UniProtKB/TrEMBL annotation:
It comes from freshwater metagenome. InterPro entries: NusB-like_sf (IPR035926), NusB_RsmB_TIM44 (IPR006027). Residues 1-58 form the NusB/RsmB/TIM44 domain. Keywords: RNA-binding. One of its GO terms (biological process) is regulation of DNA-templated transcription. It holds the Pfam family NusB. This is Unannotated protein. One of its GO terms (molecular function) is RNA binding. The keyword RNA-binding applies. SUPFAM superfamilies: NusB-like. Gene3D superfamilies: NusB-like (1.10.940.10).
Length: 66
C-alpha cells in the first residue's frame, strides 16, 4: 500500500467503505463513482487497478464477516 499513490489509496478507501457499509449505495454505483474519481484525479492505469480491487471486494463481500 505504501507504493500506491495517495489519490488511489483514498479512492479505494472511499469505494470500499461504500461497498461494505453503505447499504443504500449499490455496488455498481460505488465502483463507477470511484472509477470516475480515479480517471479525473489519477492515471488510466490506476482506474484499471481500482476497478479490479473494488470488483473483487464486491464479489467476496458476503463471505466477509463484518
Amino acid at each position: 500500500m505504501d507504493r500506491l499513490p495517495a489519490v488511489d489509496r483514498n479512492v479505494l478507501r472511499i469505494g470500499i467503505y461504500e461497498i461494505l457499509w453503505q447499504e443504500d449505495v449499490p455496488d455498481a454505483v460505488a465502483i463507477d463513482e470511484a472509477l470516475a474519481l480515479a480517471k479525473e484525479l489519477s492515471t488510466e492505469e490506476s482506474s484499471g487497478y481500482i476497478h479490479g480491487v473494488l470488483g473483487r471486494i464486491s464479489s467476496i463481500r458476503q463471505d466477509l464477516n463484518l
